[in-house]
Amino acid sequence: MAFEPDAAITAAAAPTARPRSRLAHPKAAAGFVVSVALTFLGLLAITFFIGRVVPIDPVLALVGDRAPKAVYEAARAELGLDRPAIVQFASYVGDVVTGHLGTSVSTGRPVAEDLARVFPATLEMATLGIVIGIALGVPMGVYAASRRGSLTDQAIRIVGLFGYAVPAFWLGLVGLALFYAKLQWVSGPGRLEVYYDGMVEPVTGLLLVDSLLAGDSEIFWNALSHLALPASVLGFFSLAYISRMTRSFMLDQLAQEYVTTARVKGLPERLVLWRHAFRPIRVPLLTVCALSYAGLLEGSVMVETVFSWPGIGNYLTVALLNADMAAVLGATLVIGAVFVGINKLSDALYRVLDPRAR
Q1: Domain residues for 275?
Q2: pLDDT above 90 coverage of the chain, percent
Q3: Rounded-to-integer distance, Cα 130 and Cα 152, Å
Q4: What pLDDT digit, counting tens, does each position of 244-273 carry?
Q5: What is the CA radius of gyration of the chain?
């Protein structure tokens, strides 16, 4: 009889607990949407502010520095730069929402079309780079943590420090001199040989995928040969970060009592590492990999310049040299949106994988 009141309380509380759990999902979804919208609005504000403080006059870039004052003022009014800043910002937000990012002075085409053309090249290179970084960095970090203080551990840590210290352009130039010029293991700069240009219909913009869809293995292997070296350079930098973070997470888990208990029970070291110690670090490691991927997408400017890769980093560099502010702001906005999107996606996956965060 002593347990009957508790049972009654539990039974009475059960119906009220379910509605709260049902309402939690719409509230969480609404909060997620509002958070994304506010973050994107802040990104638009920062991009707009950058366009106003950068010492580049978009009117001069359009009409030239020898244009008469009347022509200059007419072009300034046409661009809307004579209106108040708050009106300009509202117009800028409306244009971005409708997909209008202006017209590039360098190419004469809409910036949105240019970005749709160059972004898949960066996406392809960064995706292969993060695959290399995860495939090598995670096992290296786990193995280094399991052999703490050994020569192997020291070697892996040196590789990580090397990845932090070496400039991307230097490593790219050394890679070209060694693997392309001397050993001829890979193809040189560019995304594809000139005589293959235009032979594959751009469906996704990703050459590897489009060549497979077209059933052209020759173009696929040529594109992969051009992609291998720049993607490996990016993969090396992500490998350095991922391996160091994996090692740090694993060292913390290997010091826990449940790992000691598993070893005392006689479980094989492989099971202790991957089944017991590695599982708790999957969630924070997911965030690390997501941030590393976003960093590759936004920080590949030097690699794209060295390898003449027609991606968004190269496009942004050319736009800056030509004082093409519409292209600069459009590329900056896309890079920022990608970073925000990957961040929010990793947060959502964090809640899915870790019930404690729901």
Answers
A1: 111-357
A2: 25
A3: 23
A4: 999 999 999 988 888 888 888 888 888 888
A5: 26
Please state the domain count of the chain: 1
- Predicted confidence (pLDDT) per residue in 285-327, tens digit: 988 998 899 888 876 788 888 898 999 988 988 888 887 888 8
Domain-located, residue 182:
yes
Give me the residue label for tokens 């870790």: 354
**What CATH number does the domain containing 339 carry?**
1.10.3720.10
Inside any domain, residue 65: no
Does any domain span residue 63? no
Q: What is the largest CA-CA distance in the chain?
A: 97
Residue 3 placed within a domain: no
Task: Measure the CA–CA gap between 117 and 206, rounded to whole angstroms.
Answer: 10
Side-chain-facing half-sphere of 108: CA atoms under 13 Å: 0
Task: Check: pTM over 0.85? Answer yes or no.
Answer: no
pLDDT averaged over 10-residue windows placed end to end, the chain, 358 residues: 41 44 59 77 81 72 75 78 81 83 83 91 93 94 90 90 86 92 90 85 89 91 94 92 93 88 85 87 88 82 88 87 82 84 79 66
Interhelix angle 4-53/85-97, rounded to 10 degrees, is: 120
Residue 153's alpha-carbon distances to 84, 91, 165, 244, in angstroms, are: 60, 55, 18, 11
